[in-house]
Each structure stands twice: as structure tokens, then as C-alpha cells.
Amino acid sequence: MAVDTVSAPTATAPPHPASKPTPRWRNRESMTAWLFILPSLIGFLVFTAGPVVAAGVISLLDWNLFSSPTWAGLSNFARLGPDPTFWSALGNTAYFTFLSVPLTILVSLLLALLLNQGLHRIAVFRSLLLLPYATITVAVAFVWIWLYIPHDGLVNAVLGVFGITGPAWLISDNWAMPALVVMSVWKSFGFGMVVFLAGLQAIPQQLYEAARVDGSSAWQSFRNVTLPMLSPALFFVIVTSIIGSFQVFDQALIMTNGGPGTRTTTLVMYIYRTGFENYDQGYAAAQSLVLFAFIVVITAAQFLMQRRLVHYDN
Amino acid sequence: MHQRLSRRSFLELTGLAGLGAAVAGCSSGPPAGAATWAMWSSSAAEKKVWEDFSKYVEQQLKVKSVPTLTPSNGYPTKLDLQLVSGTAGLVTAINGTLIPTYAARGAHRPLDDLIEADPDFDLDDFYQPSRRISSFNQKTYAIGFDVAPTVMYYNKTLLQKAGVDLPSRTEPMSWATFRDLAIELTKPPDQYGFTCAPAIDDLVSWIYCAGGNVMNDQATRSTLGDPEAMEALQFVIDLFVKDKVTPPIKNLVSESSSSNFMQGNVAFMQNGPWQVVNIRKAKFDWDVIPFPAGAVGSTPRVSGSSFAIPSGVREGADLDLAWKLLKTLTSTGALDIYAKAGRNNPARLSAGSAFQPPPDNLGIVQQILAGKIAGGHAFDVTTNWNQVKQLLGQDLPRTFLGQVTVADAIAGLTPRLDVLMRQHQDNIRQATARKG
Question: What ipTM, to 2 d.p.?
Fold first, then answer.
């Protein structure tokens, strides 16, 4: 049996007053650590936690921004049920997420696998492919408006080469949202690609060598080595992509303004309009809390699933 | 002599510098007693006009003028935040369609007491539609700086080339004549007869000319489904969908009638005189004529913008300065600067002579406002016009694309518009209770 040599002070050896241990948070190292995280902590409290709490309070008020707010209780939440635009916006946001997240991940992963092959001048390709992600959405959205022009746009011109008559993308009931998804995938695949590339480069080569010795095919290596080893990166990209997709706003505002009809009105766009164009702050806050709850629940579900699906090599 | 700077000293100095910059940033603001005002500005030419306004204010009031200029699309949001945070200027510019929205919520103060107490201020010098646009709940909330009816621009070069007689400079043509001309001048994909924005702002002129409106006089229910409004909607939609006299719509958000007209291959464009300054760059000969006359004549939308005083401006010296500033910004001298720059027709009759050609027939704008030729209809809006516009902006554009019939679109819109009209009535009741 192991003997604990560092015993607690006994009654026979009272601690000297000078040796009273300093509380952990007051020692020099902790103070330094707090000092370093303080700017970030202040930023989080002021710009993230504070507004979330404020939104909770505002959601219980009837407030038009300019005159004094009045107590509304839960009536703002009760308005959500019979509001068809809210449900339509929620459905559109879910549709956007359902299409854009898998597509973004697929494109990012394929490009990362390609770039990981040790191509000549890989840094140049990597930089070029990262450019869309580094460009501001407003600029990209305007370029894509031109690409999607029904008669003279590049997209339909290319389709025309193959004998396909392209639709009027941004004003079509059926194609407006897919058009936004394609633009969003193009805009955001760079982020996932970089994360996947970092993940791929961290996979030990001996695992592939062992797989080869065991007679694995390329697909089997990918399925049994690459994917499990890449799962933490994959999990990170899935979580951030879903959160980002639920907050889609700027491209829809610029390219379609939510139309035609409400086909591309997203939840964040509807929240913005409710709060800052219709001056209904309480209802906008209630909507934003519902969106927040959706994101929390989906993210929590993903964290629960990761225990079974994500492989950490530690 | 060089002295080594330790890392600790470097960090301390950096921290102090950052703190200093933050304090300087927080404390910077207009000097006390300055004449502060807010205005939208989206181009260098527009900025120059407001800078000239600012100089004029300084000459007249002998105080520093501090304008806050914001691009027009971001202006309402910035103004809202300034009004809420109490950092708005003494005077703020407002688009006429938003005056009831702000007034009903108590964001701006009524000006009647200030007008009454000031014998030098002559409200009668302002065009009647401007006064109507600037009022809410029988009170004056703003003083106009521009006002104008919608007119019809036409490409003289194109009409002459096509051998078509130029339309009358003063007598509005009938809708039937206009449609025939538009069809005659359409040769797709090279040439089109007409262009307008696929939105309520342009549709409403046709509705007024047919004797209809978006809502009834008391604004208690929507009247878009009434026969007059339906006739107007059907007429315009047919120009797009049936007659196909308009350039194909490429994108509902970025569709711009002035861009289409500037291409030089469109015969007629519906727009306001505020576009004159841009159309002057056209490489073809053009002019303006009165809007085509419907069942009740040529009574297109008359719209304008105004200056108002936020309700947060304190009584006393601040309010005195705010009133003097508002009077100066809407004075004949200031509006002369505005009109001479060609921005739009000034809201004052006494400044009208400064809004000069080109185009040759620009004078009809003031004749229409004065009731000498054709006519106009002040843009009727509600206290929740953003919502009304948003709702109409969702479903009406689909009729321009032929995706939905006018009847179906209006049938779907009417119950929702009626809900908004009831909200509007609630807003009025609350404003009245607040003595707003």
C-alpha cells in the first residue's frame, strides 16, 4: 500500500501564520493569467453575455425603441405561434442549413485531400482557394448577382453550352434558395479546407504505412484511417458551419432581399426587420431567443453525439 | 543617449497610450453650442451640397455647424440608434414616408408651438403637399426641404428616330395612348417602351391616377382590392407580363429604372425629378412630361423629405438653437443651394426658381405642384409604413414576373394589410394618449 508522504498539517504542528496559503486566484501566476484573459472576458461579457441577458429582458417588454417600454410578459413569445412569416423564415433557414452545411463540408474536404497530395506550388493554390473566404460577403454577393443574371449571366451561359436553359435564379420560387446556397458554399469552403488540411497533415504517416502493409485499398485507408483521425476537425467544422448557417443574413439581404415572396427570408433577416424596421424590439428579442435555443439544442446534440463518433488520439 | 526600454515599461506605455486613445475617443464630440444636424449623403456631389449648407448655416447663425452625413441606405438605422442613445443632432433629416412612423413613437417633437411663437417663419411659403407629408395627427412634425411629383421621362432621340411625334409638354396623355406608344416603341431585345421599379413606390402613382389608394381615407382597411386600385395594378402588370414593353427583370433587388433608361434603349421612364441630376449624364436627348392620366386624371405620387427636431432636444438654449437651425436649413437661401445643384425641387415656393433646366420642360414640376397643370397626390403612408412596404414588397413583385396573378396576390395580401391598418390605428391612439 502506498504511503502518503505529504500529509495534512496535524494538530501537533500548527501552521505558521506566515505560511498560510494564498488563495489560488491571488497568486502571481493566476493573476497574470486573469490579466491575459481579461480583454477577451470583458469583450465576451459586454458584447456576448450582456446582449443575451438584455435580449431575455427585452423579450418580456413591449418596446418601440423611442418611448418607454411596457411590461408584456410572455405575450411576445405567444405571437410566434400564429406568425406565418416567422415559421416560413425558420423553415427557409433550416433548408439553407440542410443544403449548405453538407455541401460546404464535402467541397472543403475534397479540396483539402487534393491539396494534401503534395502538389507543386501548393501554397499558391491554398492561398487562391482561401480568397473567397477572405473576401467580404457584400462584394461577393454583388459579383454573384451578375453571375446569376438570367439571360447574359455567366452561370446560364455555361449551362447554355451544354444545351441547358438556366432558370432566372434569384427571382425563381424554386431556385432562389439553392442559388444562395451555391454562393455561400463558394464563399465559405476555404475555412473548412484549411482546418481539414491542418488535420490531414497531423495524421501520422505510419498509420497509412501500416494500412498498406495490411493490404488496404485507398478507400479503406480513407475510411479507416483518414476519417477517424480527422473526426475532431470534422466535428469542429460541422458545429461552426451549422451555427453560421443558422445566422445567414447578408447574402440573402443583398441578393434577394428575402424574395421572391418570402422564399429566402431567413430568421436573422426577419429578426432584423422586426427590431429595426418595424421597431418591435420585444418581438424581435423573443425571436432571437428562440433562434438561440435552436442553436444551443442542436449544438448540445452534436456534443452528445461526438462521444461516439469523434476519435481523439490522446 | 539611448536607454533600453524594458518589456514591463513597454507594456505600461502601450497600456497608457491605449487608455489615452480610448479616453480621447470617448470624449470627442461636437463642441458645446454647435449646430448639429444629420443628413444622408451617398455621393461626392451630394456631400458637396451639404458642405455648402453647412457653410451657409455658419454664416447665418455664427455658430459652428456639425453635419453628420451617412450613406442613405444606412441612414435610418443610424438615426434610430442616435435617437435612442440621445446622441442625435439638434435637427435630423427624415424621408417623408417615415415622418408618421417617428412621430407616432414620440421620436420627434411637434413644431406647432415653435411655428406659432415665431412671426418670421412663413409656413405658407411651403408647397401644400410638403406640409401634408410633414404632418401627423393634425400636427406639424417637420419642415420640408424638397417635394416633387412623379413625372414621365422620355428619350427624345429614340422617339425622333422612330418617327413618333413628341408628346405634349403640358397635357398628360391617356393610359391607352401611353400603352399604344410603349408597344409601338418596343422591339425586344434591342428596344423597350417603358421602365419603372417593380415596387409599390412606383405602382402607387398609377393607383392614385385611377382613383384608388393602398388604404381608405381613415386608414382603417386596405383598399388595394377595390376596383380602381385593381384596374391600375392590372394595367401596369400587363405592361410587364402581357405587353412585355419593359426590359426583362434580372433581379428584383437591383432592378433600377434609371439604369435601364440610361442605356438609351428605353422610351419612357417613370421617376421623380430627384433623378434629373443623374439623367443629365445621359448621352441622348431627353425631357420630362406629366404622368399619364387615368380615370381621375394625372395625379401621381408627390413625395418629399423634411427636417425635424428630435424630442430629446432639451427646452431652453438647445431648443432655441435647434429651431434656428431648422429654419436656416429650410430657408430660401439654403434651398437655393440645393435646387441650383439640381438635387430636387425645393419645398419652398420662393426657392423654386433655382431648380432650372435641363431638361427643357423641368418647369412642369412646379406647375404641377402649384395646380396649374395635371396634378399630384401626396404619398399617403401609415405609422407602420415599413411593415406595409415590406409586406407589399414580398408579394407584389411576383406579379411583375407573372408568377402570381394580381387578383391572387391582392387576395393574399388584403387580410394581412388589414391587420397592419389595425396596428396603425393603435399607434395613433397611443400617440394621441401621449399627446403626440
Answer: 0.79
Cell 416567422 locates to A86
Q: Determine whether the interchain pair B403/A173 forms a contact, defined as Cβ–Cβ distance below 8 Å.
A: yes
* Residue B292 in grid coordinates: 399619364
At B357-399, the pLDDT tens digits run 999 999 999 999 999 999 999 999 999 999 999 899 888 988 9
Neighbouring residues of B366: CB distance < 8 A, sequence distance ≥ 6: B345, B349, B352, B355
Please state, in angstroms and rounded to a whole number, the distance separating the CA atoms of residues A170 and A185.
16
The tens digit of pLDDT for each residue in B133-173 reads 999 999 999 999 999 999 999 999 999 999 999 999 999 99
Kindly tell me the burial class for residue A247, based on how many C-beta atoms sit within 10 Å of its own C-beta (0-12, 13-18, 19 or more). Answer: middle
The neighbour count for residue B143, using CB atoms within 10 Å, is 27
Chain A contact probe: residue of B252, B423, B432 with most A CBs at under 10 A: B252
Q: For residue B83, which residues of chain A lie inside 8 Å, CB to CB? A: 65-66
Predicted local confidence at residue A124, as pLDDT: 86
For chain B, how long is the longest CA-to-CA vector? 91
In this structure, are strands B65-70 and B286-289 parallel, antiparallel, or unpaired?
Answer: unpaired
Q: Count of residues for chain B?
A: 436
Q: Residue A34's Cα: distance from chain center in Å?
A: 28
All structural domains of chain A: 22-71 (no CATH), 78-309 (1.10.3720.10)
Q: Looking at the DSSP assignment, which residues form a beta bridge with residue B92?
A: B38, B308
Ordered domains of chain B (ranges, CATH) = 35-148+303-369 (3.40.190.10), 151-299+383-421 (3.40.190.10)
Q: Look at residue A5 in the predicted model and tell me its pLDDT.
A: 41
- Across the interface, of B107, B386, B394, the residue whose CB is closest to A261 is B394
Q: Which helix (H) or strand (E) holds B101?
A: helix B99-104
Check if the beta carbon of residue B149 is closer than 8 Å to that of residue B107.
no
- Whether chain A has a CB inside 8 Å of the CB on B355: the answer is no
Asked if pLDDT for residue A9 goes beyond 70, the answer is no
| Residue B49 contacts A, CB cutoff 8 Å | no
Beta strand B35-40 pairing with B65-70: parallel
pLDDT at B5: 62
Interchain CB distance below 8 Å, B398 and A255: no
Strand B192-195: give its sheet, edge to edge. B192-195, B266-271, B151-155, B286-289
Picking from B76, B84, B250, the nearest residue to A66 by CB comes out as B84
Best of B97, B244, B251 to substitute, by most chain A Cβ atoms within 10 angstroms, is: B251
Query: Is the Cβ pair B252, A255 closer than 8 Å?
Result: no
CA separation for the pair A73, A220 (Å, rounded)? 58
d(CA B387, CA B381): 11
Contact A276/B77, CB-based, under 8 Å? Answer: yes
- Give the pLDDT score at A19: 59
